[in-house]
Amino acid sequence: MIKMHNIQMLILRELLFSPNSKFTQLNIQGLTSDHFSYHINALIKDGYVKKTSLKYSLTPKGKEFANRMDTEEVSIEKQPKVAVMVVATKIENGKKYLLVQERTKEPYFGYSGFITGKIRFGEKVVEAAKRELKEESGLSCKNIHLKRLVRDYVVLNNTGELVEDKMFFLIHAANPKGDLVNTKNGNNKWLTEDEFKHLKKKYYNEDNIYEISQSRGNQTIIEGTYLVNEF
User: Fold this and answer.
1) Which residue ranges does the chain devote to CATH 3.90.79.10?
2) Which CATH architecture has domain 81-228?
3) What is the mean pLDDT of the chain?
4) Residue 219's pLDDT band (boundaries 50, 70, 90)?
5) Can you tell me the mean pLDDT for 192-204?
6) What is the pTM of this model?
7) Which of 144, 126, 143, 147 is CA-nearest to residue 219?
8) What whole-number distance in Å separates Cα of residue 186 and Cα of residue 112?
9) According to CATH, what is the number of the domain 6-76?
């Protein structure tokens, strides 16, 4: 998340409500001209503010950034992480296999589950799923479909602290192609449904996720709160 000086955040907030403001109108903190000029010029240099005929307004970049602001607290809202989760399966010799990744970074170091990844700004959901599958496993898939939208609230059992608020699009990828590889983020392997069922160190909701990914029906939103012992 971008860290910005409080004075600059206040300037952006003023321009949300008062476009095309003069220098003196924006200097609500009563700073010296040199001090205030430093901050407003920094916003212009970084592309958040533009100056036209002695008046200041937000650029498209500035509008997008400031629109995420809690204007009462003068801070950027903390929002849920938005990601894709790819459940990849294949049929081989009449038996179904699931692509499972053992995570090799924190949080959840050493846990196993399905491939996930953040959706990039402006990226379509299915394209994000294809990219993440390729980046994390080396595999490509044409038969790939959105199944559900899932929202998880993850709470530490011993403290009650909310440590994760994530919204992910659940994707099913059938019979992906290519050579399976490992990455810095995780080690990948194909498991039978029975082997997956008996994995000892799985993510808190992975069994339910697999069932949802294989079910039929309309796309729906599923929400759940989960207590975990470690994160």
Assistant:
1) 81-228
2) Alpha-Beta Complex (3.90)
3) 93
4) low
5) 94
6) 0.81
7) 147
8) 9
9) 1.10.10.10
